[in-house]
Amino acid sequence: MPFLRTASALLLAAAAVAPAPAAESRPNIVFIFADNLGYGELGCYGGGVMRGAPTPRIDALAAQGTRLTNMNMEPQCTPSRASMLTGRWAIRSGCHSVPFGGGADGLTRWEVTIGEVLSEAGYATGYFGKWHLGSDQGRHPTDQGFDQWFGIPRTSDESLWPVTPGYSPDILPVEHVLEGERDQPSRDLGIYDLERRRQIDGEITRRSADFIARQAKAGRPFLACISLTQPHLPTEPGPAWKGRTGHGNWADMLAEMDHHVGELLDAIDQAGAGDNTVVVFTSDNGAEFTRPWDGCSGPWRGQYFTALEGGLRVPFLVRWPGKVPAGRVSNEVMHGVDLFATFAGLGAGRIPADRPIDSRDQRDFLLGRSQKSARDSFLVFVGDRLQAAKWRNYKLHFYRQDTMVDPPVRYPVPMVCNLFTDPREEKPGLTAWVVAPVMKMVEEYEASVRRFPNIPMGTPDPYIPPR
Amino acid sequence: MPFLRTASALLLAAAAVAPAPAAESRPNIVFIFADNLGYGELGCYGGGVMRGAPTPRIDALAAQGTRLTNMNMEPQCTPSRASMLTGRWAIRSGCHSVPFGGGADGLTRWEVTIGEVLSEAGYATGYFGKWHLGSDQGRHPTDQGFDQWFGIPRTSDESLWPVTPGYSPDILPVEHVLEGERDQPSRDLGIYDLERRRQIDGEITRRSADFIARQAKAGRPFLACISLTQPHLPTEPGPAWKGRTGHGNWADMLAEMDHHVGELLDAIDQAGAGDNTVVVFTSDNGAEFTRPWDGCSGPWRGQYFTALEGGLRVPFLVRWPGKVPAGRVSNEVMHGVDLFATFAGLGAGRIPADRPIDSRDQRDFLLGRSQKSARDSFLVFVGDRLQAAKWRNYKLHFYRQDTMVDPPVRYPVPMVCNLFTDPREEKPGLTAWVVAPVMKMVEEYEASVRRFPNIPMGTPDPYIPPR
After folding, report:
1. Torsion angle, CA of A441/A447/A453/A457, rounded to 10 degrees?
2. At residue A325, does pLDDT exceed 50?
3. What is the pLDDT of residue B101?
4. SS (H, E, C) A236-256
5. Using a CB-CB distance cutoff of 8 angstroms, which residues of chain A are in contact with residue B431?
6. N or C, which end of chain A is more exposed by having fewer CB within 10 Å?
7. In sequence order, what DSSP letters do the residues of B223-266 get, joined into one string?
8. Nearest-CA neighbor of B157 among B232, B99, B81, B82?
9. To which H or E segment does residue B337 belong?
10. Among A59-63, A116-120, B18-22, where is mean pLDDT lowest?
11. Whole-angstrom Cα distance, residue B48 to residue B40?
12. How confident is the model at residue B17 (pLDDT cuts 50, 70, 90)?
């Protein structure tokens, strides 16, 4: 796409500003995100009992804090995680797509993650669960600012490979479960097979709870990134949860996830850290699509790997007792990329000033000092293709693509729909004026890319910016 | 459909039982139902801000009481109202379809409505809003057990007729707004044109609030049936609400509806009747379909006039302080037809024993004495066609019909889907055993019809049962 290359200082303006003095004491941050959990799964989003399993612990978390109905993510695992952790659209860091088929993948070490930002600001940092931002030694969480990690470098579908007819490890080996400490090579904890896949969220939860307890005792502020592997395919509950709901694997899994989140909340309380801990629960992208494991996007259409709302909108709950308004529900536009600057702001961390940062600090919005989000729009990339844009309550689609396996087809003119009156994005509106603010966004992005070229996918370390 | 005719005492067993002694003091009943309000519109069902308007008053009502996620209705206005008010599937009373084109319509006076049942039990009874169960004098609410009424005999689309090119009143006159007292002819309050249509829910609310205040003062238990006309097409807010949300007519209408429900709740409180009043809020059927006014079915597919969940499932909230559990959310199957026996039970009214009654008394379930509904299944008629059946968490479709204007096409074998894992009813399952309990239901229904033939649509009064 040739129009995605030039120079502008616009996007750097915010980045160059030094962090504002922290009005809040620097809280702990427990950042829990599920894998492919669709908008419609949780009780507080109209799911729960309707999906065969109530989610009382997560619903209670929602009631204790603020719940967003318009939180958006990049629509694939790798880009979503890249943007949340670096504050940059994943296309900038070479992480615009889930990597397939081996080879170098993930974030270059040149990227600055929230782990590095908060670590430098004095936080203890732990990463537990699925990473998907670098398979090789040297590209794991402990190479990107986290003091310790446990989890899988890639993704849960690999656990199915050994039971796929025709597969042999000679073709491509299945990933292993790993653990590690800062700047050390990760240690191998064995193959990530189906049995391990069913159990890993329990282990992620136990290790996370242990980290929370230890850091709270040490009296040091901490960041725990807890990247649950459910409900990503193969969607199966842990052995202790199998058959619990009577409504099948998906419902059992949902009950298990609710229980795990409850265990994490209990760990925070038991550590006496409830009042001084920001808890965020969200999902990396929209609903699982691959049958028979497909998920529920609630009122929206589409799933992950699409620019439809079902791909972008995810559950988002945030709790900080006495600071984040309780019981608030907001439809303001926010994006996962904003978590970087928001978490940095909470921890008084320093945001890099030498690169485009797309993240907006959402503290004023989330802490209730403003009814408005710091963002009302964003571009939607699907892979390296600018597929759509969201601007206020409008969505503009450049391409039509209904599922991850449909080839995208360019619309002759952008398809604009009103998300209030047309949540399923089926009714193009006569709203050509919406194209103007969207094209302004596109031009600003292109200008920034001309000045700071995107890092190509598969770039090895060391990466040296071409300036 | 020849298999819909024979004799069984099964359905009569429940009907012949005398009402149980009332364990509860006989409460007032304020029964509010919207017109074509889809499952996904209210904040407490995942709508609200996502549709452009928060619904704080209705959401608070939900939190104060019990909210059902599996309340079902017959999927058209006339049958839905007939089944709620008589406790009989609408096909029995000749009300299986919305009447079009003039002629005799609605309930024969032989039917016994909840108005008659509770009136006989000493309740003051009022009906306010859309009726759609009889156009002619002699078939209005005040001919069916209600002490007074105000509203429209048919439906809101007629308000558009005068602005439709080619229309003339000679062809078919538009309905008028009416009011009346028990056993008196209704009085004409003028044509139901577009201007009146926009204002009528305000008037329904004021008259209902006045009725509540008067009856509470008189110290007599009362039943207020409040049949709001929104959001049925043409979906437009009242003049005072136009432009309030900034998000268009639909959102303005939603804000207005929430306000009206709030006014009714305030009226109950101001009358000092809060603790002794059961408040129910629901919708007559699934979402509005006709563009540009179509509504939101939330996670379900389909709209009114279809047997898809979006046609059947409706919001349902019930509050009775200290009696109905607060904050409870249940996915147990319940049906609008059950309101007849449930309201009769609450008021210690007598249910007729001389005809098939399909209604189940849901007091144990709604009052929290049982986790289980008194029903786990029902048949779905679309017009006079047995189109589908719901049995526990399964749906069995005899016909495929995606919208009200698609011709129904019979499936070669019934299409069965699991509503937990397939809320959009797109994935037929290998669950042929579900057909067995459904066919048992069908046989019981057919047997009852052989003994008590259904009343044909358009039957004039007096109706004399052929026995």
Report:
1. 20
2. yes
3. 76
4. CCCCCCCCCCCCCHHHHHHHH
5. none
6. C
7. EEEEEEEEESSS----TTTTTSSSS-HHHHHHHHHHHHHHHHHH
8. B232
9. none
10. B18-22
11. 8
12. very low
**Tens digit of pLDDT for each residue in A367-405?**
999 999 999 999 999 999 999 999 999 999 999 999 999
A132 counts as catalytic: yes
Which has the closest alpha carbon to A80: A231, A257, A286, A280?
A: A286
Burial group, residue A5, by CB count within 10 angstroms (0-12, 13-18, 19+): middle
Asked if A329 lies within 8 A of B247 by C-beta distance, the reply is no
Contacts of B326 in chain A (CB under 8 A): none
In 3-state terms, what secondary structure has residue B38? coil
- Averaged over B298-313, what is the pLDDT? 98
Å from B456 to nearest chain A CA? 37
Q: Is the Cβ pair B46, A40 closer than 8 Å? A: yes
Average pLDDT over residues B276-288: 98
Residues of chain A contacting residue B235, judged by C-beta atoms under 8 Å apart: none
Dump pLDDT digits (tens) for B33-88. 999 999 999 999 999 999 999 999 999 999 999 999 999 999 999 999 999 999 99
Across the interface, whether the CB atoms of B420 and A47 are under 8 A apart is answered no
Q: What is the pLDDT of residue A24?
A: 57
CATH class of A378-451: alpha beta
Q: Any idea of the CA torsion for A348, A354, A358, A359, to the nearest 10 degrees?
A: -10
CATH class held by domain B379-451? alpha beta
CA distance A227 to A133: 12
Which residue ranges make up each domain of chain A? 17-375, 378-451
Q: Are B93 and B107 in contact (CB under 8 A)?
A: yes
> Which DSSP letter does residue A78 get?
H
ipTM for the predicted complex comes to 0.91
* Neighbour-count burial of B22, counting CB atoms closer than 10 A to its CB (0-12 exposed, 13-18 middle, 19+ buried): middle
Task: Retrieve residue B141's tokens.
Answer: 């609410």
Does domain B23-375 sit in CATH 2.40.50.140? Answer: no
Of A50, A297, A418, which has the smallest distance from its Cβ to B69's Cβ? A50
Rounded to whole angstroms, how far apart are CA atoms B41 and B430? Answer: 33
CA distances from A356 to A7, A19, A232, A415, A456 (A): 11, 16, 31, 29, 16
Instruction: Count CB neighbours of B360 within 10 A.
Output: 20
Residues of B in contact with A247 (CB under 8 A): 393, 420
**What is the count of residue pairs from A and B with beta carbons less than 8 Å apart?**
83
Residues of B with catalytic annotation? 77, 132
In CATH, the number for domain A17-375 is 3.40.720.10
Q: CA-to-CA distance for B360 and B342, rounded, in angstroms?
A: 7
